[in-house]
Write a structure and sequence with these properties.
- By secondary structure, the chain is mostly helical.
- The protein has a domain of about 60 residues.
- Helices cover about 70% and strands about 0% of the residues.
- Helix 2 packs across helix 3.
Length: about 100
């Protein structure tokens, strides 16, 4: 496997650290590979990518119209919701949720 060395600003370094710690990635390589897969999908078929994004936006609008939403009123509410989502994603990925 060949290696590439890159320098990141503090902003992107913090994002990498957060994704590893909170989102269940094992290391920086997994974060980069996930990002590259998204970029590849977009580059391979930009029209299909745009269509998928539009579909996801419509799903969100439909959820709001149907009353499927969560109200957050504080930073604590946002944190609690974010941790619930993280735990659900980790379970779906077959990983242990972060405490």
């Amino acid at each position: 496997m060949s290696g590439i060395h890159i320098e990141l600003s503090d902003r992107w370094t913090r994002l990498f650290q957060r994704m590893i710690y909170e989102w269940g990635y094992d290391d920086e390589s997994q974060v980069v590979e996930a990002a590259l897969k998204l970029l590849e999908a977009k580059a391979d078929d930009p029209d299909a990518w745009r269509q998928r994004v539009q579909e996801r936006i419509q799903e969100g609008i439909d959820d709001l119209d149907a009353g499927r939403s969560v109200e957050v009123r504080s930073d604590e509410d946002v944190d609690a919701l974010f941790h619930e989502i993280q735990a659900e994603v980790a379970i779906r990925l077959g990983k242990s949720p972060q405490a």
